[in-house]
User: Which sequence fits this backbone?
């Protein structure tokens, strides 16, 4: 059995919690996010290479007044940075979030989730362009928590990367 | 429609529908009680809150009879349980545990009741988790079967988050402090951290110093054995010593010493103090007897006149006596032994008195010398004096011969304590001249002559052999010279032969014949004094 921690970060309102809710088996109340800045969820992932337990730390979204609490990023095996396709400034923040993640765990794999793909959005940001930001970025997905599209893929991708890396 | 008509119409409407609506409500209530309850339930909490906010006293008055009774019953029940436990503790009576508690109470300066209370309230540890500090992953866990925690992973991660959150805040305000305890309801989570992991222990009820010590000890044991594995943990639990750590954690769940019921002590245990006191009494009585006998023996030794001056000491145990001390002579050692043999109670004597001939006392040495010399001076031919200046002896005086001198020096040399002997003893041989007078023409020795010669022989026997005896015959020069010559020879010969035969002297005897009278003898007036033989001696020239 493999057990590890994955941290979700992104700007406020990009849909981190919605993505988590789509994916996990069990989670604490989302109220915790507003009180201590994080909520914990758990997902048991069955894989031919071995089962694993992913503990998802859903952090409070970054705003102008509220910075991400760096302590929660410590010890993560992987990060999922979420941005909102409908809000370009959240896409701009990806770079900053990436820098923060890699400052805590420099060789951690990172997945980028460009959320709300179901809504009308400008497609000016190319996935390749984002991927070029760091070799740590293993995949960039357009996701929709609303429709559930690609949600499982993104978590599956980060899980297999982590497992492969450990082996 | 004016206002009056409107009111009249409304009144008529209410009168017509009110009974109908009331009936509808009653019917609905009877048929859908559960539905109403579920709909009302969420409102009750808010309603009570609102009521307490507005009319707190009314609520307290309304609830008091119910709450008061409830609390009173709960408290009574708790006290009853506690009293029962304490009673059981007391009933264990004369136990080692009770004695130990009394002792601890004295040492720690707390009342025994307080200790009893702490013993009766044992902590109940429900679960213990060893959690990786950074990731919040549960590395090992131990839980009791009652009310187990299902989502330990979730709890551990959340606790890690809370811990990080609080510690970060604490660090900003105070240094070197971290979250140690989270309380909720009647339970608490005790957190004990090491460098890479921490223990979260869920305790129901109160926790005591002992509980915290136990938790700390468990974490120490885990770290001691597995710190490297914990440090290197990368998420792979299959290669992690979870089982070994869980075995250590399960110790935490074991209850503290339970009061063992019906564990009666054997009656023999009650006899132990009596046996102990009996033994103590017997021991003291024996000691008393030993002391008494010892003092009796020592007193006897002291009162024995010849032993008083020596420091002798006797120790007795059960009639067996050991004598110790130092005396100058074997005699004293024997005297000590014989003086105490007759004392009642003495069974066996081990005489360890040491005989040490002491010669260091100058007075003693001086008196020994005086004693010996005065004794020696009583002998014929010895006349010596001494001067003793510790530790050198000077001897003066004279003796008849060297034999005497040697004998004196030999004897004095035996006195202990004299290191140097300086002597100035002269050999002074006594005057032994004897004159034997003869009648005219007589040559035989008379009885008187013989007596004189025996005296002489006796003296000569005591003298050295290196002296020569001279027998000289004198003449009165009357009559024929030849006859005189013959007479003188015979007289001298008889004298010498007598001495030789009677005395068996070792000294040589020389015979001299002189044709003249002895010096100073007037032969005209005293011819008898000239007809003589003179026996004298002289020391041989070396």
Assistant:
């Amino acid at each position: 059995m493999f057990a590890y921690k994955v941290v979700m970060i992104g700007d406020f309102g990009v849909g981190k919690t919605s993505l988590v809710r789509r994916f996990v088996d069990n989670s604490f109340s989302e109220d915790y996010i507003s009180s201590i800045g994080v909520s914990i969820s758990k997902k048991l992932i069955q894989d031919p290479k071995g089962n694993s337990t992913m503990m998802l730390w859903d952090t409070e979204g970054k705003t102008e007044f509220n910075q991400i609490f760096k302590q929660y990023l410590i010890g993560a095996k992987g990060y999922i940075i979420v941005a909102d396709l409908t809000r370009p400034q959240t896409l701009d923040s990806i770079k900053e979030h990436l820098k923060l993640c890699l400052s805590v765990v420099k060789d951690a794999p990172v997945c980028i989730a460009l959320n709300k793909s179901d809504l009308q959005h400008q497609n000016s940001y190319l996935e390749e362009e984002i991927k070029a930001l760091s070799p740590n970025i293993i995949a960039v997905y357009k996701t929709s928590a609303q429709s559930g599209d690609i949600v499982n893929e993104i978590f599956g991708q980060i899980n297999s990367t982590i497992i492969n890396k450990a082996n | 429609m004016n206002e009056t008509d409107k009111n009249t119409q409304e009144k008529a409407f209410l009168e017509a529908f009110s009974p109908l609506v009331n009936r509808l409500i009653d019917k609905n209530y009877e048929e859908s009680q559960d539905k109403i309850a579920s709909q009302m339930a969420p409102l009750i909490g808010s309603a009570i809150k609102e009521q307490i906010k507005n009319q707190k006293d009314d609520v307290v008055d309304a609830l008091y009879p119910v709450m008061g009774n409830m609390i009173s019953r709960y408290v009574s029940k708790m006290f009853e349980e506690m009293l029962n436990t304490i009673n059981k503790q007391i009933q264990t009576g004369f136990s080692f545990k009770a004695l130990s508690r009394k002792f601890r109470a004295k040492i720690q300066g707390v009342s025994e009741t307080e200790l009893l209370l702490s013993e009766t309230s044992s902590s109940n540890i429900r679960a213990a988790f060893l959690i990786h500090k950074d990731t919040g992953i549960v590395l090992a866990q131990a839980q009791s079967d009652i009310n187990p925690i299902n989502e330990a992973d979730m709890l551990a991660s959340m606790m890690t988050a809370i811990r990080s959150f609080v510690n970060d805040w604490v660090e900003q305000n105070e240094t070197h402090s971290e979250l140690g305890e989270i309380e909720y309801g009647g339970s608490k989570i005790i957190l004990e951290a090491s460098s890479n992991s921490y223990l979260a222990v869920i305790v129901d009820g109160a926790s005591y110093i002992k509980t915290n010590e136990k938790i700390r000890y468990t974490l120490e044991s885990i770290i001691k054995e597995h710190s490297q594995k914990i440090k290197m943990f990368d998420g792979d639990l299959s290669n992690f010593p979870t089982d070994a750590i869980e075995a250590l954690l399960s110790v935490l769940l074991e209850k503290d010493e339970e009061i063992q019921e019906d564990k009666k002590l054997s009656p023999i245990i009650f006899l132990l103090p009596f046996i102990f006191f009996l033994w103590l009494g017997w021991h003291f009585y024996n000691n008393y007897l030993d002391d008494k006998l010892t003092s009796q023996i020592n007193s006897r030794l002291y009162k024995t006149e010849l032993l008083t001056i020596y420091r002798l000491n006797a120790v007795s145990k059960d009639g067996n006596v050991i004598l110790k001390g130092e005396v100058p002579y074997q005699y004293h050692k024997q005297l000590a032994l014989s003086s105490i043999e007759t004392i009642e109670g003495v069974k066996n004597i081990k005489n360890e008195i040491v005989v040490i001939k002491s010669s260091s006392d100058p007075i003693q040495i001086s008196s020994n010398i005086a004693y010996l010399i005065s004794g020696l001076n009583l002998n014929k031919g010895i006349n010596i004096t001494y001067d003793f200046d510790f530790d050198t002896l000077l001897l003066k005086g004279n003796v008849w011969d060297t034999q005497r001198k040697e004998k004196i020096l030999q004897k004095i040399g035996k006195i202990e304590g004299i290191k140097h002997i300086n002597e100035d003893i002269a050999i002074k041989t006594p005057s032994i001249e004897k004159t034997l007078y003869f009648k005219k023409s007589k040559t035989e020795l008379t009885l008187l002559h013989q007596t004189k010669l025996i005296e002489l022989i006796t003296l000569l026997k005591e003298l050295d052999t290196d002296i020569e005896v001279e027998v000289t015959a004198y003449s009165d020069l009357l009559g024929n010279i030849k006859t005189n010559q013959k007479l003188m020879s015979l007289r001298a010969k008889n004298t010498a032969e007598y001495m030789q035969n009677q005395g068996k002297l070792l000294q040589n005897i020389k015979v001299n014949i002189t044709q003249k009278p002895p010096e100073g003898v007037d032969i005209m007036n005293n011819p008898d004094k000239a007809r003589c033989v003179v026996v004298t001696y002289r020391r041989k020239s070396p």
The radius of gyration of chain B is 65 Å. Residues 258-262 of chain B have pLDDT under 50 and may be disordered. Chain B is about 55% helix and 20% strand. Chain B touches chain A through 23 residues (CB under 8 Å).
